[in-house]
Fold this sequence. Notes:
single chain, alpha+beta, Jelly Rolls, five-stranded antiparallel beta sheet, 21 helices, about 50% helix
Amino acid sequence: MKAGPTPVRTGLQVALLTALAALWFVPLRPELPTGQLDSNWRLGLSLACEQGMVFGQQIVFTFGPLGCLVTWQYWPSTYLPSVAFWLGIAAIAGWLVFDAMENLGERMRALLALLLLGLTVDSALLVLPLAFVLHGARTRSMTPVAWLACLALGPLALTKFTLLPLCVLALAAGLAVRDVRASTRVTGLAVACVGALVALLTAGQPLDALLSYLSASIEITRHYPDAMHLPAEGGRLERIGLALGASLAAGATVAGFLAVQPVVRSDRNTIAKVAMALFVVGTLAVVFRHGTTRGDAEHVFPALVSMMAFLLLWFPRPEQPQRPWALAAVLSLLVLAFQLHVAAGMNIPGGSIPGRVQLSTAGVSRFLDGSLRRSLDDGIEDLRGRIRAQVGPSYPLDTSVDVLSYDQHLVLVGDPGSWRPRPVFQSYQAYSAGLAMRNARFLRSDHAPQTLLVAAQTIDRRLPTLDDAASWEIMRTHYRVAGRLNSGHLILDRRKESLDAPGKPENAVIVEGQDWTTIPAAAGPGLYASIRCERSVFERLVSAVWKPPSRFLEVRLSSGVVRRFRLVGPAAEAGFLLSPLVLETESLRRWLEGADVPLRPLAVRVVDNRGRPLAARFVFGPYPYPQQ
């Protein structure tokens, strides 16, 4: 009879495979900043961490105090901490996963799962929660590496707000399914809390800011589906989105069943079974929601590879009847992921799967020949040179600067330390009254930057004035146009004395409209509108399990031309500049200088994604936000 693997041989397999996984996850050769939208928020996170800004107060974003460590984008001051962070996460997760497997075949399948998770940052962040729970479910033991996992889950929870509940669920489930005493479980939770507190203090974050961070994160998350779902016109694209969502839902159902079933059928207590079910459902729900809210390839692809990895990690044994289901689910998701991987390049480091592999191999080779940091720093300097050539000689040096709306790469022309951002530093993210007012209060305060670099631009076919809606009037009253960069951005200098405040909201005109609604004449420099559309019970249910319905604002101009814009519900309800219609930076300049802006809308209406008019409540009037 053939002898089984010895403990030494098993240990060597686990160690070797863990080393391979770590090399895949550790960003030795991260991406360089590019000036694109996603690259700019990653740059903003790095600069915020470098300057020691307080998250939840000075910075409000979907990522947390340690978010700059998980972007896989290079910045000199965050590079080594990022490498150390990912090395710890990957080594701990890899060891737990491979130690939980019974033979080399299972470990190779687990390696494939980890390689899939490591294709994108969004999926890679799931590796430690999955590994900790998987190890507990299969071994029932609390090994030294499992204790390290408890310690690492604390800092991981502070990288991105959606990871906070997932890490809590992972701790609860991973400790509950292990055969340990209650005191050991309490100690595991305490170790995770210590890890989080140490990480906060190391990052220079005051402990009293933690509640502010949680409060701001809830505000962002609550309105995120309304603001950030990709608007779909009726037709083929809508049907494709529904098909992809159904595929993800089917994959999640199979994965959840495979993960929960062994624990439910075991002799574990009820608490362990419930904790495991909550973790599996919670994790798969977050993955599904993340993929379907935007619904584009860049977000669906990470969801697909996460589902495949989940299935591979909990793949049934040969004798189990569920094995064909699992295999069919993996192959189906693989076909979908293959179809999307080219279009998803923006969310894959390196721009594609071959590019992702090349980044890892280039990182190892340059590390071995000693040229790694030099090549990365040269890349930053090359980018700065290209940006300087793009903006020209008018860039304001030796002054504090902020950038509206999302071109944070411009601050690399001068000293990045001069960047003094609004809390929600990319304008399209200030999509509710609370978030917009944070930025407006900052621009009115003594901490506001001396100079603003502004472009009237947005995403998802929105009306530009819906973004950062409370700040447009502050730009007009507290800043003046001082010039223009060659890139087209306006240079606004802070006024020594602000202009008169706009009128009070009591002068507003309220109209209930089902179709075209006439816009009253503006009494001041601009007419603001607040628009509210009620949702049916069915639409609210669909919003909870799928995504909110798409709404569009149609604007009829004096020429008879009708323009359509994506309507962001929370921002529209809070109030935004409607007339004059500011669609590009030149129109913005004219409005800020008090000159006539050609586009004046005559009537508006709200329609669904098939162009059908919807009942809405319109409030027209002056600047609607508090002026303090």
